[in-house]
Amino acid sequence: MTNKPKPLASLSLDLDNQWSYMKTHADPGWETFPSYLDLVVPRILSFLKERNLVITFFIVGQDAALGKNQAALKSLAEAGHEIGHHSFNHEPWLHLYSAEQVEAEIVRAEDAIINVTGQQPVGFRGPGFSVSQTVIDVLLQHGYQYDASTLPTYIGPLARLYYFMTARLNKEEKNQRNNLFGSIKDGFQPVGAYLWPKRGGSSDRQMVEIPVTTIPVFKIPFHVSYIIYLGSFSPVLALLYFRFALGMCRLTRTQPSLLLHPLDFLGRDDIKELAFFPAMNLTKDEKLKLVSEVLCLYADNFRIVNMQEHARQVRDSAWKA
Length: 321
Ligand SMILES: [Zn+2]
Fold this sequence. Notes:
Layout: E1 8-14, H1 18-24, H2 37-50, E2 56-59, H3 61-64, H4 67-78, E3 82-85, H5 99-117, E4 123-124, H6 133-141, E5 146-147, H7 156-166, H8 171-176, E6 194-195, E7 208-209, H9 224-231, H10 235-251, E8 257-260, H11 284-301, E9 303-305, H12 307-320
Parallel strand pairs: 1-2, 1-8, 1-9, 2-3, 4-5, 5-7
Antiparallel strand pairs: 6-7
This protein binds zinc ion.
């Protein structure tokens, strides 16, 4: 090993709960907000602690508002992780909301999150990668420093097709989910972090955008759930693919931002209700082994920070440039 410092990379986890998957999939029973947080949060925390990783958890306001989840959510902040904002209602059609609805959604979730974790979030990730200029404007007014809601890929429409095939949705529900996983134009967005273009006067603060990185040039995903999905066919190929993704990031000097989900830590032996989900044919142990190998490779290649630190570095280097 040389003494050359490793390039920067960030790591985050979207703490989507059982009900939010059921809701997007229009499965009955989500209205009682079934939760797996008591099961999965301690598992994730000990996994990260063993690997000395301090990351960002994007949490959903509705979960923070329910007493049954508060101990689990509080433990994230107490372990030193950054708490980000992942909307209140977790509706992937957030981009269809009016300005008033966006404002209410942001404030309601923020209040619930601060109340439980004691942390003021400074970063936002829209549910299902949904974001709009209205959302960005409201976040800026509320002092947010970064947004992390974009997934620059061309394959979003394919993922949506798969989703529609496995869910029973009526016409209105389909319309709401029309932009789920993004549209073709998302493929033209940059894969690395950047400053959101200014709109008003030159004194306006600019939002840092940290996309969920896709493979540079190819723009195909490599977030951890995707690697696990590939791993459900062949763990060896999945890791080769991940190595290739990291190699492309280094080659193009892209500072990646990698995304985790609770389902990366939950196997078919844990949650039967989510059997419709890709890669739920794997056991908990099979998944944990893959996640461990993926994060080990990530840490070998990059210096891993949380999202707030990543955003700060982006702002600093833009300022110097
Ligand atoms: Zn989510």
